[in-house]
Amino acid sequence: MLLAYAGQLGKVSNNTAEVMALYWGLKLVISMGRRDVQIEGDSKIIIETIKGNMREAWAIKGVIDDIMYLLTILNRSDLNHISQEGNSMADDMAMLGLKVKGA
Predict the structure, then answer these.
(1) Mean per-residue pLDDT for 15-29?
(2) Rounded to two decimals, what is the model's pTM?
């Protein structure tokens, strides 16, 4: 199953947007009762931070901590970096999110 959604975050950095998308995606998956998840992202910084290979920026530390907790709820989670070219759906959803009003 592939899930997608879009929403507005206001003026935030691309890293904050990536982290928030992952956070809300994990919350959605868990609320649906799913426990085996494959996560793909085109932000190597975010993927490596969540894997524990990089230190998070202070501005997103709280959300990273929340993501780490949500990952413990899952039975299995594969977290992989993919090229931006291979993640065109995320780009499409980001463009849609810019058009969503009041989200």
Answers:
(1) 90
(2) 0.77
